[in-house]
Amino acid sequence: MQNSDTICAVSSPPGVGAVGIIRISGKAAIDILNTVFHSNQPFSQAVMRHGFIMDGGTKLDEVMAVGFEGEKTYTGEPMAEIFPHGGRMPMMQVLSAVEKAGARPAEPGEFTKRAFMNGKMDLSEAEAVMDYIGAVSSLSAKSAFDQLEGALSQKIRGMQNRLTDMLAMIEAGIEYPEEDLEHDIKGKAMPVLAELMAEGRALADSFESGRFLKEGFNVCIIGKPNVGKSSLLNALTGKERAIVTEVEGTTRDIIEGLYDIQGLPVRYFDTAGIRESHDAVEAIGVDRSLSAIEKADLVLFTVDGSVPADERDNKVYEKIKDKKTVLVLNKSDRGTKENFPDIKTRVLTSAVTGEGMEALEQAIYDTAVTHQEKAESIVITNARHAHCLNDYVNSLEAAVAEFESGADLECVSIDIRDAWNHIGEITGETVGEAIIDRIFENFCLGK
Q1: For the chain, does the N or the C end have fewer beta carbons within 10 angstroms?
Q2: What is the CATH number of the domain that holds 290?
Q3: Cα dist. 408→76, 94, 172, 181, 196 in Å?
Q4: 435-446 tens-digit pLDDT
Q5: 387 and 273 in a common domain
Q6: Below-50 pLDDT ranges, the chain
Q7: Nearest to residue 248, comparing CAs of 228, 270, 268, 269?
């Protein structure tokens, strides 16, 4: 499918580099390029040429340009790219000349949308384009690139193929009821359904870790005043992000930063020590600490490990005991005492000597990325995909229930078709136009 009009947009961030990119796509892309781009070199497919952008008889910029005919392009239709100087004014002047020559401004994500509509990529691969552009760590980039390369699509199509085979078997039983095939069909179908449900659940369950890879893992450092929270933040980040003094209540506000642990993007939040305070500013800081706990994916419950826990430590624990928690027994250079035995994951640290920092980072990583996802190359990072997979599993569970209740094969086939359609929404095979439009509205211009 091809649109009749030709689109254009700036495809490089404004003002970032010395050279920018203006992209043109559509049936008239090469004609428009030849209208605005004047060169002593004759046009040749996929060959970069030097020349000038002209607006009538006026030279606008000295550029390089290239054109691509046929369907073997990113969008599946003729394309051209112009490389003007990267300043805002040169880019806008060249873009204006391209529009005067007959191209219209592209909508957000329209180049990739055309690639999808023209069969150059499926919907999950198209969504991975923006995930890859916006990746904040090496793991999130790898996950997005694997999806862009079709790892998820191949998995989904493999699952659909097995469902198709099962539907063909069930249709045969429906078509020839006199053969009394239901018992044999059930015996063959149930193990396959169990396998397909397990695969679907594993993919859906990977979304929690996948979300962390895509958005960052929020780690909140919590404790009473003067247990070394700010020193811990500085040691973890390798920077003097927080003021450290012997005076209680030094931290009055949330201090945060985004860092990398083995490719996992981690966002640390150093918070005000939790205690009752008559200082109005400190009290606001404590309130913000409590709010940060609610948003945290993991709490580093920090105590002075050299002394037994006191009532103030216990009060802090009451506020975080329902969260995923790592107990940080800080100030281990002064000795250690047993504290909070109910918390299984615990690390001895010393922000002064650096002891335990690698172990603490490993504990953070292990909490965010489970062993299954470390071994699994496909991790779901998209909430839409997770929703489709959950619906898929629910439909297969319904099919199993129909089999077990002795329902007609027609009822079973309906549930299996529903499952097929639900995961087809991931690749775009069964998705509606409204969802497609909404997905590409979130893309940046020029992509």
Answers
A1: N
A2: 3.40.50.300
A3: 46, 66, 13, 12, 21
A4: 888 888 888 777
A5: no
A6: 1-2, 241-253, 273-275, 277-285, 371-372, 375
A7: 228
Query: Helix, strand or coil for residue 347?
Result: strand
Which of 373, 394, 414 marks a domain boundary? 373
| Partners of 363 in the β-ladder | none
Q: Are residues 218 and 326 in the same domain?
A: yes
Q: Do 368 and 399 share a domain, yes or no?
A: no
- Residue 392 gets the label, from left (phi > 0), alpha (psi -120 to 50) or beta, of alpha
Note the helical H segments in 269-381. 280-295, 311-320, 357-368, 371-375
Do residues 249 and 271 lie in contact, with contact meaning Cβ atoms separated by under 8 Å? no
Q: Which alpha helices (DSSP H) does 406-432 contain, by range?
A: 409-427
| List of E strands, 193-297 | 217-222, 255-261, 264-270
pLDDT in tens, 3-34: 679 999 999 876 667 899 999 999 999 999 99
Shared domain for 322 and 362, answered yes or no, is yes
At which of 349, 373, 397 does a domain end?
373
Q: How many domains does the chain have?
A: 3
**What range does the domain containing 71 cover?**
7-121
How many C-beta atoms surround the C-beta of residue 400 within 10 A? 18
Calpha distance 296→298 (Å, rounded): 5
